[in-house]
Specification:
The complex is a heterodimer of chains A (220) and B (1141).
Chain A (H helix, E strand, L loop, with lengths): L1 E10 L6 E11 L4 E5 L6 H8 L7 E6 L9 H11 E4 L11 H6 L11 H11 L15 H13 L5 E5 L7 H18 L2 E6 L2 H4 L4 E6 L2 E3 L1
Parallel strand pairs in A: 3-7, 3-8, 5-6, 6-7
Antiparallel strand pairs in A: 1-2, 1-4, 8-9
Helix pairs in contact in A: 4-5, 5-6
Chain B lengths: L1 H8 L1 H40 L4 E10 L1 H11 L3 E2 L2 E2 L7 E16 L5 E10 L1 H7 L10 E5 H7 L6 E7 L17 E12 L18 E5 H7 L5 E9 L7 H12 L7 E5 L5 E5 L6 H13 L4 E14 L2 E11 L1 H11 L16 H4 L13 E6 H6 L7 E10 L3 E15 L39 H10 L5 E3 L1 H8 L8 E4 L18 E3 L1 H8 L6 H30 L1 H9 L4 H39 L3 H4 L10 H27 L3 H5 L7 H27 L5 H24 L11 H12 L4 H22 L20 E9 L6 H7 L6 H4 L2 E8 L17 E4 L11 E4 L4 H5 L14 E6 H8 L6 E4 L7 E9 L8 E3 L1 H7 L6 E7 L2 H14 L6 E4 H44 L1 H9 L4 H30 L1 H7 L5 H28 L2 H6 L2
Parallel strand pairs in B: 5-9, 6-8, 14-18, 15-17, 23-28, 25-27
Antiparallel strand pairs in B: 1-10, 1-20, 2-3, 4-5, 4-7, 4-10, 6-9, 7-8, 11-12, 12-19, 13-14, 13-16, 13-19, 15-18, 16-17, 21-29, 21-30, 22-23, 22-29, 24-27, 25-28, 26-27
Helix pairs in contact in B: 1-17, 2-14, 2-15, 2-17, 2-19, 15-19, 15-24, 15-31, 17-19, 21-22, 22-24, 22-33, 23-33, 24-31, 24-33, 24-35, 31-33, 31-35, 33-35
The chains are: A alpha/beta (220), B alpha+beta (1141).
Chain lengths: 220, 1141
């Protein structure tokens, strides 16, 4: 279970602290999915990064299955992310030197050994429709294909929590639809907790739970 | 507008492009400036050291110092004189001064510090006047010394010095009459003044860049101490016009009209019989001179009778003998005709001066029953015949000494048959047949003889003294000229006197001064020629800067290309809005040209700074290589312009190539920000080029191995070809299509990720690889030649197994390996120190240094010739030779005995000397003109591998004595002794042979000094390689940093999925290491191939440690630049990285 309690985030600036998140609390149970919508600069991505163990909050706590990621040291936090969280970013961030299959397997290069990972990666790639692109480099893929590969990569470690930051932001409507379908289908199959940050109404409409974010405040 | 705006907006990126071009210009133009600066410096040093001297006139025979005055007097006379038309040559003469010039050694009397190779000048007021320096005089026991000499021996004004010089001798030392025991002379002087460089302190007639050890002593003092009379051996000439100086013409037209016979070493007197007798102070007339006089006699229709008179220890018939007599070899018929024709008491030509062959008429006993023997004929004079109770047909034995440089003085004999008796009132009593022999002809009686050979005074009888009193040196026996020349003739001549019929004048004007050895040398012209240098520094710096220039241009290209990659969307936009490809190219090339132009301007200034820095380095850090601190920067605008234009053109070309590459892409791909094109196609092309160059390399090696191509060039070409092949191969490999392979975990997996990223931007990776590989190629190929100190040294080593090498000022005539020789040299016969040393003697003709210690081009090289026994010892190792037969291959030294139909002389030289100083190979000829001789052509028959004999060329002894008869005895000793004895032998020789100016050096020290020079040169060029490495490091660092910046999101994502900072660091570092190690291996491997022939020749001397050190340094610098990128990668916060901020 994901529990975020009274999260706040501010950045120091010459004009005083810039508050990005204000007292945000939320929770997700396994199998839950939600999206956070809001305009640019509302703090939704910051919330995502805090939940994903990438950026500590100024105040408040994050617990995933009772564990506070920020109680870990750097190595432990990295291992936590590797084990428990899957990320899908607006920019797919596929490694250009690796093939599609290798990219999906990148998270398995660190953390606990997982003998089944290659098979799972192939399976995921089959599920996202990239079975015939395993040996292709990212440069040979279209934008949608890249994002599908990124989704497979996010799920290869079978994370408890999948965080997506504008996963369709760079895609045309048709491709965005396909990608959204994939994300939700795989979420259902793997019984993960899914939180998607987007400003796309179309994508947001696919989620039962839609939260809005404005000026750092989350309205559930 | 666009160009201007772009220049302003992308200024930060452009700075690196400008710097890249600037470095290329600086390096290229700087290298050319270095070359011209060295040449100009050498020219100024050489010309400055000549003072006012343009030409020098020398002669092996000392001539009147007044000859110089006669030249000046004659030059000031009107063009037409009562004595005849003044020749034109005088028109160019400005002034002249006589000098006595010697090379010698100087010892500080108090400290005993010694300086060898000192030029000693005997001068008077004419010297200072000649150079236009008032008050440059020295008198009494004073001496002026150069600052370098003062520093070398630690002398100051008022200190006492001993100058040791070879005592000049008119009579050849290697002849019976030569005085071999006193070949050196010591002269004590007091330092009056230490001269600075501007006051002729560095006066030198031979171009050398090193310190000049010069000492000036009063000419009169030198003449007196050396018994020279008023004679000198050199005239300095200053000319009004130094263009097109013809030395031979100067001798012919300047010297001949004013020379006297004494200047040519000749004496002429009229005999009582009215003949003209021509003799020489040397005791023997050189063959050339004899020919000249024979031509003169033929022209004037005069009879000529040559004679060769020798001293016999014994004239023996049976058990009857006469001690110590002169015997003349003469053409009796000619002598008869001449005396008969012109004898004053014999106006009708009667009676014949030679006895008839019948015994009766001479009142001699009849022949003995044993009848005539079959020996060559001999005539005794009446006195000797009576003293020996000779009979016609008697066997007469002549016993005499012969001098051999190899064996010393040895007794010899020849048998003759008595065929007649000469009258005492004719040839039998003619003392003019014997030239003046100091110690003999001037003796009051025979017991006062003091010849340079042993005389048993107790053998001299009363009747011998009576004969001496009455007939002096009149020969007691006559033999035929041919027979006499056969047994007594030598390389110095075969005639001791010539008599011409009649009293017609024999003058110097009728004899060519050149035939007496007078030579003129255009020293100013020689200096200018020599100043071109053995080592074209510009060329060398250009060679070794080549990779540096290429690296700088690659760097400029790299930064420009990276800048273009940043602007792909801009290019795409321009294409979209209707810019034609040529217009886009034009815009960017204009921008690039402006950058290149700015780089060139900065580069020109930097070139001057770079050249100044290199010149400073040559004067300081690398002074060991150039041996002078006088090299200065001379900015030659033409070289600066050439260098700048070359690099600028290359820079613009590099930029144009980058733009061309970009403009080939479609507008759509550019708008999408794609930067790589045609992966597969380019991989294929790169692969084809790689294979082509690889095959070319194989071909070159095969051709070299088969002998159809020069191995040095072949292997170097192969190394270069494989370097290109390797880079193209890397390009093809990085661009290849590949399938997924499971990535491993942990460090290996990180490394794999890093390695694989090199394929993401293959052009950048290949350029980085090239920068590192080029630097490595230079560093390793140069470093492979570095010479490490080699201990020990058997006879096949570079020392030849010799521990010590000694050189004397005066010739040493005796063999120290024999008891007699040691005795002759002044040692005990059983000298315990010398008895434990084996000495190999070498003849020496001093000349220009040929080792890497000189910067000047040798035109008249130092030559040595090994004495007996050396050839068979098979010492040293030959790197290559002309050997064809098994015997020659087993011992290439035997090639020194090879003769050539075209008259070339076989010579051996050190390989380093041949390669870097003389620029010659096996079979090549080196032609030079020794003083007073026709040109000599030396043909290189062998090259010694890294030896201690780098300062000289080596020829066979037989050829040496034929070519250089004036350079007598042995002046170089190579000594084999156990190292523990070396110090004792050194001090013993330097002490006991101090009068000969003996200077002993350790062969390893000498060898090391050559190595030091070579290593210093290599260090110079390695410094260039290091600069290249610096550029490579900057390039690599820039590429990696750029890559990291471009991958910030990837890196952020990796962090997000659980990669630790250590994982990220490993990945980035691996990428850098892949390029560094790849470049290093490629560069080093190709460099080793390139210098393989040299490595093979040096075998055990390859500096493995040094090379590994260099490679480690390359890797270390690569790692450092990678760490910069690593730091950049780890310093970016994850979220910002993900956001791409």
């Amino acid at each position: 279970m994901l529990e975020a309690t009274n999260l706040s985030k501010s950045y120091p600036s010459p004009a005083g602290d810039l508050v990005v998140l204000r007292d945000v609390s939320l929770s997700l149970s396994p199998g839950d999915s939600a999206c956070v919508m809001g305009p640019s600069g509302s703090g939704k991505s910051t919330l995502l990064y805090i939940l994903g163990g990438l950026e500590p909050p100024t105040a408040g706590t994050v617990r995933l299955d009772g564990k506070d990621p920020y109680s870990f040291k750097a190595e432990g936090l990295a291992a936590f992310r590797n084990r428990e969280i899957g990320f899908v970013l607006q920019d797919h961030c596929l490694l250009p030197q690796c093939t599609v299959l290798e990219n999906v397997l990148v998270p398995t290069l660190v953390g606990e050994t997982d003998k089944d990972a290659p098979e799972r990666a192939r399976s995921l790639l089959a599920q996202v429709g990239l079975s015939d692109r395993l040996d292709h480099l990212p440069s040979a893929l279209s934008g949608g294909e890249k994002q599908r590969a990124a989704i497979a990569r996010a799920l290869v470690r079978q994370p408890r929590l999948v965080l997506c930051d504008e996963p369709t932001g760079n895609l045309d409507a048709e491709t965005a639809l396909v990608v959204a379908d994939l994300i939700l289908r795989l979420h259902t199959q793997q019984h993960t907790m899914l939180l998607v940050v987007t400003h796309s109404e179309t994508l947001g409409a696919r989620f039962e739970r839609r939260w809005s974010m404005s000026c750092g405040t989350l309205t559930v | 507008m666009l160009t201007k705006a772009s220049l302003r907006f992308y200024a930060a990126t452009h700075v690196m492009v400008v710097l890249g071009v600037a470095v290329a210009v600086a390096v290229l133009a700087g290298a050319l400036l270095v070359g011209s600066s060295v040449r100009e410096s050498l020219k100024q040093i050489a010309l400055g050291r000549l003072g006012a001297a343009d030409v020098i006139v020398t002669s092996p025979t000392f001539f009147r110092s007044a000859l110089a005055d006669a030249l000046v007097t004659r030059s000031t006379q009107p063009r037409q004189t009562p004595l005849g038309a003044r020749v034109d040559a005088y028109g160019v003469l400005r002034s002249a001064a006589p000098v006595v010039v010697f090379s010698g050694a100087v010892v500080h009397d108090d400290s005993k510090r010694t300086a060898g190779t000192v030029m000693a000048y005997g001068i008077d007021e004419r010297f200072g006047r000649f150079h236009g320096i008032d008050g440059f005089e020295v008198s009494g026991r004073e001496a002026l010394i150069s600052a370098a000499l003062a520093q070398e021996v630690g002398a100051k004004s008022g200190d006492s010095l001993t100058l040791r010089v070879a005592k000049p001798s008119d009579i050849p030392l290697s002849s019976l009459q030569g005085r071999r025991e006193t070949t050196g002379e010591r002269i004590r002087v007091t330092v009056a003044r230490v001269l600075d460089d501007s006051a002729l302190g560095e006066f030198s007639l031979a171009p050398t860049q090193g310190s000049v050890f010069a000492i000036y002593v009063p000419m009169g003092r030198l003449q007196r101490d050396l018994g020279l009379g008023d004679r000198a051996n050199t005239i300095l000439l200053s000319l009004n016009d130094t263009a097109d100086v013809d030395p031979a013409k100067l001798v012919r037209e300047l010297i001949a009209p004013v020379a006297a016979l004494d200047d040519l070493g000749l004496r002429v007197r009229t005999t009582t019989s009215g003949a003209t007798l021509v003799e020489t102070r040397a005791g023997l007339l050189a063959d050339d001179l004899v020919e000249t006089l024979e031509d003169l006699a033929a022209r004037e229709k005069r009879m000529i009778v040559p004679a060769l008179t020798y001293v016999a220890n014994t004239i023996r018939i049976g058990d009857r003998e006469i001690p110590y007599s002169t015997v003349s070899a003469v053409d009796l018929d000619g002598y008869n005709r001449m005396v008969g024709a012109v004898g004053p008491g014999n106006p009708e030509g009667l009676p014949p001066p030679v006895a008839s062959l019948t015994a009766d008429k001479q009142g001699l006993p009849p022949p003995v029953a044993s009848a005539f023997s079959n020996h060559a004929p001999i005539w005794l004079n009446e006195w000797a015949a009576a003293d020996l109770s000779a009979r016609i047909g008697d066997e007469v034995t002549l016993e005499y000494f012969l001098w051999s440089d190899a064996d010393g003085l040895a007794a010899s004999s020849a048998k003759f048959t008595l065929v007649g008796v000469t009258p005492m009132n004719g040839i039998g009593g003619d003392p003019t047949l014997t030239p003046d022999y100091p110690g003999i002809s001037d003796a009051a009686d025979m017991t006062s003889w003091d010849p340079p050979f042993p005389v048993e005074l107790k053998r001299i009888r009363k009747q011998d003294e009576d004969y001496w009193d009455r007939y002096r040196t009149a020969p007691k026996a006559i033999i035929s000229l041919a027979e006499g020349q056969r047994i007594w003739g030598s390389r110095y001549g075969k005639v001791s006197s010539l008599r011409l019929s009649g009293t017609g004048a024999v003058t110097a004007q009728s004899i060519s001064p050149a035939s007496a050895g007078f030579t003129a040398r255009a020293v100013r012209g020689e200096a200018l020629s020599a100043a071109q240098g053995t080592t074209d520094f510009g060329e060398y710096f250009l060679y070794f800067s080549f990779f540096l220039v290429v690296s700088a241009l690659l760097l400029a290209y790299l930064f420009f290309a990276v800048g273009l990659e940043q602007r792909t969307k801009e290019v795409g936009l321009l294409a979209t809005v209707g810019f034609a490809p040529s217009a886009i190219r034009g815009a960017f090339v204009r921008e690039g040209a402006v950058l290149a132009g700015m780089g060139a301007v900065i580069g020109i200034a930097a070139a001057i700074g770079y050249a100044a820095l290199i010149m400073y380095g040559l004067r300081t850090w690398w002074v060991g290589a150039v041996g002078t601190t006088r090299l200065a920067l001379h900015v030659a605008p033409e070289w600066l312009a050439i260098g700048a234009a070359g690099a600028l053109a290359a820079g613009v070309l590099a930029i144009w190539l980058g733009v061309r590459q970009m403009s080939k892409r479609s507008a759509r791909s550019l708008l999408q920000g794609e930067t790589q094109t045609g992966g597969a196609g380019r991989a294929g092309r790169a692969g084809v080029v790689a294979i082509t160059f690889a095959i070319l390399g194989v071909g070159l090696i095969a051709a070299s191995a088969s002998g159809s191509f020069n191995p040095t060039a072949g292997f170097f070409g192969a190394g270069g070809a494989w370097l290109v092949a390797g880079l193209c191969g890397a390009s093809a490999w990085l661009r290849r299509r590949r399938k997924s392979r499971p990535l491993t975990r942990g460090l290996t997996g990180m490394s794999q990720l890093g390695f694989r990223h090199t394929a993401v931007r293959p052009s950048r990776s290949v350029l980085s690889l090239a920068l590192i590989a080029f630097a490595c190629f230079v560093l390793v190929s140069v470093g492979a030649f570095r010479k490490e100190p080699v201990s020990g040294g058997d006879k096949t080593s570079g020392t030849g197994g010799f521990t010590l090498m000694a050189e004397s000022v005066a010739p040493l005539m005796h063999d120290p390996n024999t008891a007699d020789g040691r005795d002759g040299l002044g040692f005990e016969s059983s000298d315990p120190i010398l008895a434990n040393a084996k000495v190999t003697r070498f003849r020496l003709r001093p000349g220009d240094e040929t080792s890497c210690l000189t910067l000047y081009r040798p035109t008249n090289p130092r030559i040595i010739a090994p004495g007996p026994g050396f050839i068979g010892d098979t010492r040293f190792t030959f790197a290559s030779s002309m050997a064809t037969t098994p015997e020659e291959q087993a011992n290439p030294w035997t090639l020194l005995g090879r003769t050539f139909d075209d008259g070339a002389i076989a010579a051996v030289a050190d390989q380093t000397t041949l390669m870097y100083v003389l620029h010659l190979g096996i079979g090549d000829d080196f032609e030079f003109t020794p003083e007073g001789q026709p040109p000599v052509r030396l043909r290189i028959v062998g090259a010694l591998a890294d030896s201690v004999l780098q300062s000289e060329l080596i020829i066979g002894e037989a050829a040496f004595v034929r070519l250089f008869p004036k350079h007598e005895g042995y002046r170089v000793w190579m000594i084999e002794t156990i190292p523990a004895n070396a110090a004792a032998v050194t001090s013993h020789l330097e002490d006991r042979l101090s009068d000969y100016g003996m200077d002993v050096t350790d062969t390893h020290e000498r060898w090391s000094s050559y190595h030091q020079v070579e290593n210093t040169y290599l260090a110079t060029f390695q410094a260039l390689g290091s600069l290249g490495l610096l550029l490579g490091t900057v390039g690599l660092g820039a590429v990696l940093a750029r890559n990291v910046l471009e991958r910030r999101r990837d890196i952020g994502l990796l962090s997000a999925v659980g990669f630790t900072p250590a994982n990220i660091r490993s990945m980035v570092l691996s990428e850098g290491l892949a390029l560094v190690v790849g470049g290093t291996l490629l560069g080093a491997t190709c460099a080793i191939v390139a210098v393989w022939p040299a490595l093979q020749e040096r075998a055990q001397a390859v500096p493995i440690g040094n090379l590994f050190g260099l490679l480690a340094a390359v890797v270390a610098t690569g790692v450092i630049s990678s760490l910069f990128a690593v730091r950049l990668a780890s310093s970016t916060p994850i979220v910002e990285a993900i956001k791409g901020e």
